[in-house]
Amino acid sequence: MPFNPRYLPPVCVVLGLAWLVPALWIVIGPHSFYDHVGPFGPYNAHYLGDAAAFQAGIAIPLIASAWIVPLRAGTLAVGLAAVSFHAINHWIDVNNANGGSNADISDAILLTILALLTIAPLQAALRKETPV
Hints:
With about 130 residues, this protein is mainly α. The chain has helices spanning about 10-30, 30-35, 45-65, 70-90, 105-130.
């Protein structure tokens, strides 16, 4: 059974929040984020800020696409590509986080699940935008 397009607006908001929450965490508590999620290599405030900017840059259009229909397929495609590459990167580095962190295989699994959960809404958005 295909994904019902009527659920696209709330799904876009939820997916957008999945991108926005980590961005806000980085902005509000960069050391906390680094300690719990991103302890790969030495702490670097600039790169964390870049990560937050990219996360928010994907999040805001995803959330906006709940109301601005022409944005949906594009923002979902960008979100899928970004989370897929992010997941691949975590699978490659699965055991390379600094000791004592929560960054382990669970991050790779969660990012992979998020990528998989983005596929059906993207397909629905593409179907909805394709002229009959």
